[in-house]
């Protein structure tokens, strides 16, 4: 499958390059752009990005594999990331994960059959004082309870 940015994304990519001293330095914003454009960073997308940035594809693959925010497979409309580090664990992160798994009938790393939700456990979301925490797409939800989770998930269309 050949991938290529849309014309709007090509213009955004050109603008990104203007803000960095080298093409390699523009890799993270380019990967964010690719995630928005393609919904995932597949091997084909990594190859395309490597060509755009004049880098070996393994360099792009190494960066993609380091960050959990660059999915290599299609995800649901809503990506639920539950923090699984110490503060959230102590404040009930496993209860949060177990409740979401049961409510959505999926396991961690899976997407619902209707492609609406993907569930992930991630390392620190940087909100230890309000644990347990989950992030759905770009929004944080803190001090979670089972009731809050139900209300949040039920409100998403």
Question: Could you characterize what this model shows?
Answer:
The chain has 157 residues and is of the alpha+beta class. The protein has seven helices and four strands. The protein has a four-stranded mixed beta sheet with strand order 2-1-3-4, with helices on one face. A hairpin with a 2-residue loop joins strand 3 and strand 4. 22% of the residues are buried.
Keywords:
4 strands; alpha+beta; four-stranded mixed β-sheet; about 160 residues; 7 helices; about 45% helix
Outline of this structure?
This protein is of the alpha+beta class. The chain contains seven helices and four strands; from the N terminus they run ααααβααβββα.
* Count of helical stretches: 7
Structural class: alpha+beta
User: Would you identify the regions where 5 or more consecutive residues have pLDDT less than 50?
Assistant: none
User: What sequence of helices (H) and strands (E) makes up the elements?
Assistant: HHHHEHHEEEH
Query: Strand order, biggest sheet?
Result: 2-1-3-4
What's the shape?
Answer: elongated
Portion of residues in helices? 40-55%
Rg over CA atoms, rounded to whole Å, is 18 Å
Number of beta-strand segments: 4
Q: What characterizes the major β-sheet?
A: 4 strands, mixed
Mean pLDDT: 95
Q: Span between N and C termini? A: 31 Å
Strand content: 5-15%
